[in-house]
Every structure is written in C-alpha cells, then in structure tokens.
Design a protein that fits this description.
The chain is mainly alpha-helical. Helices cover 58% and strands 5% of the residues.
Length: 303
C-alpha cells in the first residue's frame, strides 16, 4: 500500500479504500462515489467536537481539573481483561491537549506524537529547528491566522478543508482506488457545496452533540433516521488488535534490524518501548506505532 501511495501516509484507511475498490472493480464497476469532504466541510470529526469540549473544559476551576479529574484519568488503565475501554482511551487522549489553546489542541492534541515525543523518535541530527518551526506546523498556524476572526467550528472546518483534506484524505483515496484501476469521485467537495458550507453558522455544523447537523437534516428525506443518527463508525483498520497480535511481529522485526535504512533517522528504542506498553494494555499506542512503522517501511522501500 505504501508503494502505491508514493508518500509515507500513515493512515490505515488507505487499505480499506483499496480493498473496497478492488472488490467493486471485480464486480465490473469502474467509478465509485465517496464521502470525502463531508467531515471536513460540515464538522463531522471527533476532533472537532473534542476541541469544542477543550474550550469548555478550560473554563473549569484549576483545582477541579488538576486536583481531581486529571489524576483520576491518568491512573486508569485503557483495558481490563483484554477488553478495551473506549471512554478511558479517549479521555487520556483528551488530556494530552487539554491545556493547549484550542487551535493548538486541534493541531497537536490529536496527532500521533506530541512535540516532546517527536524528539524521542527522530535522531538529534535531524532536529535542527524547533517543532513549531517545522514547515507543516508553520503552515498550519499561518493558515489559522487567516481565520482567527471566525467562530471556532468555522476555523476548524476551514483548516481541514485547506490542509487535511487535500494533504491526506483526497491523496490516499485517489491513489488507493487507482491502485485497483478504479476511479473514485468526491461529490461533497463540489465548489458550490463547499462555498455554501463555509458561510454557515457553527450551529448548522455542530448542534449540541450532533455533528454534520445540516447534512443530516437534509438526508432525513432519503435515509431512515436510525441510520443517519447512529454512532459514528470510523473508517479505519483494526490497528489496536493488529498491534497486539499479527502486525506486532513485523513491527518488532523492523525496529530490531539495525541494518535497515530507516535507522539513519528513527530511533528504534522508542517504537519498541511503545509496542511493549501497548501490548501490556498500559496505554493505546496503536496509531503512533502505525506512524512509526509506515515511516520506517516507506524509507526502507525507497532507499
């Protein structure tokens, strides 16, 4: 998959996209419509709601946050008896960014690595600049500066539409589908739809806890409500299970081999320590491990 993507794209959804496209192609389909843009344009990601919650959380008294809530969440395990605890996993991730300014939380809090963790992964000789001065981070905040006068949800959907959508989702969905010789088209990023959505008040994107509010209301005339309003199901691969059993063997072998090219810039000890903690159920490092693994494999393929 990494070979088809050309870039070290650490998003397992590319695998899903390829498999769906391959199955469709085998049935004689040559073109599919996809839903890319719906979340970015209408505020449908969990990170959008989480960033709103961070802004509200920061209004609580410091003692309540630092003395009660945070120590409790940090002490809890992310799984019991082999069963994952989704809420605790989400809460721990939430705390990573709970003290950041909301747009900084939107950028850093839901990434695979914090700035400090990044320094533990990459060799010092490649860390010539501060994390905040790296090109992708600079680009994010320069883009954010253009819309700081807008409400928070509008700022987030603008950033996702300008950066996250073309930089990741459109890239992998196009390349993964074309790897199966199938064309994938995203009607929800039609110019008129995007321009219309950009002028909507926040409440038509996130209304209470209902995300993509206007899009869902429009869909009610066509689709049963129990489908429209069912819990969000991420379009991802079972990374947490893979890192427990199956892919863990390949991850460990990749970072144990000191002769592979990725060792020139990645520190092997850090991903190996994450793998050990993940397998013990101490924390959920599945996506961080996937990021390390994808970067390493892509480097080894192209060196």
């Amino acid at each position: 998959m990494l070979w088809h993507l050309d870039d070290p794209v650490a998003d397992g959804a590319a695998i899903n996209t390829y498999l769906i496209s391959k199955a469709a192609k085998e049935k004689g389909t040559t073109v599919l419509l996809n839903g890319m843009g719906g979340d970015e344009v209408f505020g449908g990601y969990r990170k959008h709601l989480a960033t709103q919650l961070i802004a509200q959380y920061q209004k609580l008294p410091g003692f309540t946050r630092k003395g009660v809530i945070e120590p409790l969440i940090k002490a809890l395990p992310v799984e019991i008896g082999g069963h994952g605890l989704k809420f605790i996993r989400w809460a721990k991730r939430f705390l990573r960014s709970a003290e950041l300014q909301p747009l900084a939380a939107f950028a850093y809090g839901f990434a695979y690595f914090t700035p400090q963790e990044f320094t533990e992964l990459v060799h010092e000789k490649f860390l010539k600049a501060n994390f905040e001065d790296l090109y992708p981070v600079q680009t994010y905040f320069q883009t954010a500066d253009k819309v700081r006068h807008l409400p928070l949800v509008a700022q987030m959907t603008y950033l996702d539409t300008k950066l996250f959508l073309p930089g990741l989702n459109l890239l992998y969905s196009d390349k993964a589908s074309m790897a199966a010789s199938l064309e994938s088209r995203p009607p929800l990023i039609d110019k008129d739809i995007v321009e219309f959505a950009s002028h909507l008040p926040d409440k038509y994107k996130i209304n209470g806890k209902i995300q993509k509010y206007l899009l869902k209301k429009a869909a009610e005339r066509y689709i049963p409500k129990e489908i429209i309003y069912r819990p969000k199901a991420p379009f991802g691969t079972p990374l947490r299970a893979w890192m427990k059993s199956g892919l863990d063997t390949s991850v460990r072998a990749t970072f144990d081999d000191k002769k592979l090219p990725h060792n020139d810039f990645l520190k092997a000890n850090y991903p190996l320590s994450l793998l050990e903690k993940h397998q013990k159920g101490e924390a959920d490092y599945a996506h961080a491990l996937w990021g390390c693994y994808a970067a390493a494999k892509w480097t080894d393929q192209n060196s």
